[in-house]
Amino acid sequence: MHDAGCGVGESSGNIIDMAHTTPPETGTGWTYAGNVYTIAAGANVTVTGNNGGSQRRIAVAPGATASITLKDATIDVLTHAQSPLLLNTSADVTLTLAGGTNNTLTAGVNSAGIQTTGATLTINGTGILTATGVRGGAGIGGGNGDGGKITITDGTVIATSVSDGVGGGGAGIGGGYLTGGIGGSGTIKITGGTVTANGSGGGAGIGGSYLAGSDGTIEITGGTVTANGSNNGAGIGGGQIGSGGTIEITGGTVTATGGNNGAGIGGGINGAGGTIKITGGTVTATGGSGAAGIGGGNGSIDGGKLTMNGNGVVFASSVSDKDTEHKTSGILFTDSSSSSTFYGNSVTLTDDVTIPADKTLTIPNGATLTVPEGKTLTNNGTIDNEGTINNNGRIFSRAGGITGSGTFNGNPVEYPPNDPTPTGGGSSGCSTGAGMAGALIPVLALWGTRRRRE
C-alpha cells in the first residue's frame, strides 16, 4: 500500500494494491487466490495501484454488502470474460471515487468494466472513473447479462462499451449483449456528477444492448449527463430493435444523441419509443437518421408517449408523440420550428438553460417564466416576452434579444459590454408593457470587466 508505511506494490490490512505481484492470501475484508481479490461481506477496502497488464482483478462475493474506495487504481489488459470489478449475484457495493484521483477499469471481451448483473452498485465521491466493457460488455452494467441496479450520485464517470467487430455490443451504462438495459426489476438512476456513456455495436448510451430494450426504469434527477448511442441504438433507451422502456427526467442537464437510426431518447432501430416523462431539467435529444429526437427509432410504428407536466425545458430534433393531452407544463423546442411551445401557465427553471441563436423562447400572454436564484438563462437567440418573466437568478442576453410587451420583474438583464443599448422585453414591474420603444427593462452590463446601468 502507498499510505500506511508499506512499500509500493504491497497489499495488507484493508488496502489492496493492484501492483503487488505476490499478494498475501488474506487481508482485512478480502482474500486472494488465482489472480482474484475477493471482497467479503462487511468489508471496507481501498483499491489502488496498477495491475501492470496482469490478470489481477477484483470480485465481490455473492450476497456481500461492501464498501470499496478507488484511489488511482488501474485494472486492465484482462482476457476473455474477465471483469476488472465483478459484483457477483446479489452483491451490494458502494463505490467511492477518492477525490483528486483517476481510476481506469478495462474489461476483457464479453465483460463489463464494472459488471453488475443481478447486483446493486452505488457510485459516489469526487474522483474520476473510466470504465470500459469490450465486445458485448457494458462500460458499467452487464457482460452478456442484464445491468442490475446502478445508481450514480457524484464524481466524473466515463462508461464506454467498445466493439471489436465480432458480435453485438453493449450499452455504455446498462445491458450487455442480448439482454435488457437493467433487468426486469432493476433501475439506472443518476442523481449527480458528470456522466458520459457511450454504447457500441447496437447498444444504447444508457439502457439496452444489441437486440434488447430498456426493460426497467432509467431515472435522471440531477448532474450533467451525456449519452451517445451506437449505430442503431438510442442515446437513452433501447438498443438495436429495442424499445425505450420507462424513462423519467426530473432534473439535470441531459444531452442524448442516438446513433444512426436510433432515437435520442426512446427506441433503437425499429424500437418503440416507450414511456418518457420529463418534469424538470434541461434536455437535448437528437435522433439519428430517420429516428425521433424523443420517441421511436427509425422504422418503428410506435412512437411511445411523452409526458411533460413540470418545469422541463426540452430541445428535441423531433417528437413522435404529437398528443398534447399529457403535455401540461414545460417548454419544448423542436427542429421543425424556430419558436418554442410553452405548455401550461408557469415554468420555473430547475437547471441552467441556453437559447440557441436560431431559436425564440416565447412566453405567451398569461404565462410566467421564473428564473430562480442560483440558475442562469443565457439568450443567444430571442426571448419574446408577452407574459411575465420573474428573474431571481441571472439572465444573460445579446443586445436586442429580448422583445415583447410583457412584464419583467426582478434582477436586471446582463448584456455584454460595448453592445448597443438593448430595447424591448416588456415593462419592469408593470402589468402591461410599454412595447419595444418605451421599454423600462433595467440593464446591468456585467460581461467582462465593464459595468453599465441604463
List keywords for this structure.
454 residues, mainly beta, 16-stranded parallel barrel, twelve-stranded mixed beta sheet, disordered N terminus, disordered C terminus
Helix proportion: under 10%
The count of DSSP E runs of length 2 or more, i.e. the number of strands, is 45
Sheet with the most strands, sense and barrel status: 16 strands, parallel, barrel
Q: Given the C-alpha coordinates, what overall shape results?
A: elongated
Beta fraction: 35-45%
Mean pLDDT metric: 88
Explain this structure.
This protein is 0% helix and 42% strand. The chain contains no helices and 45 strands. The protein starts with 14 loop residues before the first strand and ends with a strand.
Brief overview:
This protein has about 450 residues and is mostly beta strands. It has no helices and 45 strands.
Task: Set out the fold topology.
Layout: E1 15-17, E2 26-27, E3 30-33, E4 36-39, E5 44-50, E6 57-60, E7 65-75, E8 85-87, E9 92-97, E10 102-109, E11 114-115, E12 120-125, E13 128-134, E14 140-141, E15 149-152, E16 156-162, E17 173-174, E18 187-190, E19 194-198, E20 206-207, E21 217-220, E22 224-228, E23 236-237, E24 246-249, E25 253-257, E26 265-266, E27 275-278, E28 282-286, E29 294-295, E30 305-316, E31 327-334, E32 341-343, E33 346-348, E34 353-355, E35 360-363, E36 368-371, E37 376-379, E38 382-385, E39 388-391, E40 394-397, E41 402-403, E42 407-410, E43 427-428, E44 444-445, E45 452-453
Parallel strand pairs: 1-5, 4-6, 5-7, 6-8, 7-9, 7-10, 8-11, 9-12, 10-13, 11-14, 12-15, 13-16, 14-17, 15-18, 16-19, 17-20, 18-21, 19-22, 20-23, 21-24, 22-25, 23-26, 24-27, 25-28, 26-29, 27-30, 28-30, 30-31, 33-36, 34-37, 35-38, 36-39, 37-40, 38-41, 39-42, 42-43
Antiparallel strand pairs: 2-3, 3-4, 31-32, 44-45
